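Re: your question about 4-hydroxybenzoyl-CoA thioesterase

S., sorry for the slow reply, the queue was backed up all week. Below is exactly what I fed in.
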Amino acid sequence: MTVEDETGVLCRVPMRWGDMDPYGHVNNVEVVRLLEESRIAALGVPVGTGDQVEPPLIPFFSALPEGTQALITENRIRYLRPLEYRNTPVEVRVWVVSARGGALTLGFEITDVVSRRACVRAETQLAFFVPATGTVLRISAEQQELLAPHAGPRVFR
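Result:
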């Protein structure tokens, strides 16, 4: 599977020198951080958790009610080849795999900017919890419409 350039949105996430492990490539824990940073660049800062200075590429989190918590319920990651440290941002394509019920599943592909080859593919599932009511927030039809243009394929079958 190769993700098409038109799928989802493309985020550029800075790599850090300290992201490397002793083998000279980005550590698997830091890959999860890259996924998190690209998710925030794509969807925005969750409501009430920080200052949204740069506008998100898909303003989904700002469409959630105040106080809603975005919780990770699952991460699946496939490492295709080592992601070498570069002193330039890594490219991460983010797309919507599924948005229904109370769950949003995102797909990710991290590409080495020099070789242009995919290094990592991943899926992250989120649920949205409203502490004030103790309930999981269901994704509305309007929110599904906002996400629909950014849909793409499943990473895992």
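Helices lie at 28-43, 141-147. The chain has a mean pLDDT of 89.

Happy to talk it through on Thursday.
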